[in-house]
Each structure stands twice: as C-alpha cells, then as structure tokens.
Design brief:
Blueprint: H1 9-25, H2 30-39, H3 42-59, E1 65-69, E2 73-77, E3 91-93, H4 96-103, E4 117-119
Length: 132
Amino acid sequence: MAIKRKISEQDGAAAVAAIRRVFEEAEGSTGTAEARFATLPRATRATAVRFLLEELAALAPGNSVEVRVPPFGVTQCIAGPRHTRGTPPNVVETDAFTWCAVALGFSSWAESAAKISASGSRSDLSERMPLL
C-alpha cells in the first residue's frame, strides 16, 4: 500500500536541497554543519525532515517501527506486527540534524549512534540509509 504524501515532491526536494547544501558547504566539520543547519528557516528544516520520513515510509512500508524526529514529525515503517496502543516496541528517535545527516548519507547510522535512540529488535535502520 502506497503512503499518502503530505509534502509535495517539489517542496520536499527544495527543502532537501537546502539541507544538502549546508552539509556540502561544511564538509568535514560537524559543528559547522550543525550551526548552519540551525540557522535555516524552521519551515525548511521541518519540510525536509517530514519529506525524508515520508520517503522512509514509502521505501519500507509497514507499521512495526515508529521513527520520531521531534518536534517535526513521526512515521511508522518496516513490515511486521502492527502496534496500535501505547509505546511501540520498536522506536527510533533522534534530532532533526542527525536525522537529515543519516538520511542523506552525510553520516552513517554507526557514526551517529550516540545521537540516535533505537529500541527494539527491528529498530536498526542502518541498511535502509541513506534514503536519497
């Protein structure tokens, strides 16, 4: 079943392009990239995060893992047992900067592990990254 996107391809691509430029301009300096990321408009950061979450849900459909990137978005993905009440058994949570870095391939899952809270047997998304 295909997911219903809330972010248009055009808006998502524009926001992701802005995020990608931040990482490319600060190549090799995580602190600089994080500082530049924080100066982007909130709407750009939010759109990019949500678009990348939608992309993950499209590439790995399902409801067994919940991926949270507060305060911008959440999605469910990965085929398996569906969870409907309370805290799901498989949860991934991280900040927007780390999510974008890993989803776009500027950092690996392993390199960012300290900033990613992943619980449950299905929560390792390393094989699904980068998304774009």
